[in-house]
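queue> holo job accepted (zinc ion)
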Amino acid sequence: MNDYIRAFLKSLFPQRCAYCGKVISADRLACDSCQKALSRIDGKVCLKCGRGIKLCSCRGEKYFASQAAPFYYEGVVRNGLHRFKFRKGQQNAEAFCEEMAKTVSERYADVTFDCIVAVPMTKKSIRQRGYNQIDILCRGLEEKLGVRYESNALIKLYETRKQHGISLVLRKGNLTGVFDVPDREIINGKTVLLCDDISTSGETFNECAKMLWLSGAKEVRCISVALTRQTKNKDNIHII
Ligand SMILES: [Zn+2]
Ligand SMILES: [Zn+2]
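queue> job finished
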């Protein structure tokens, strides 16, 4: 979308806070109170799982090199992502993309990415929702980072049970064979930035990274808007 059309479309709708929906001035992405309440992941951070050092629960080898996110999935961030995913809040993507781009630039400062790849949704889920929120995030990241987005690099072959509410062992089995790389040439030899909206156990990232690795990816690094504080599955971790 060119800047002129974007400015025109923006002028038709009031700017709203990406987290609570309150009308705010056109040059902002969040209201003051949400800005202050953002559950940022800062201080000493584990560079592998992306959580604060005290919350690190890294275990086992992963197919990705590291995970990062600007936020924990709670409070106003949880509200904002809920609006974005379920209440047609596509216009809120910019706030999340800006925060993710900042995190990528800081945590992955020494990595040169060849492409961005989305954790995919099935066609059926996209149809039901009316849009693919992860695709929107990737397009924003492409623009902000100047890294090419390969929109069809990974596909999801069929729907699985939701990842939350099932044990970690079942999660792993639940995802096996779900994702595919239709054209290996797109991925072969590439350093990939893999993007999702929310990550809990990291198993979805890991299964996607496995398929990318099997297709010859040189390295996979992950970025999401938010991470849950805990990775262990307790059935009370309820994702939206
Ligand atoms: Zn707000
Ligand atoms: Zn860790």
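queue> Helices lie at 3-12, 32-37, 75-86, 93-107, 123-129, 133-145, 168-175, 203-214.
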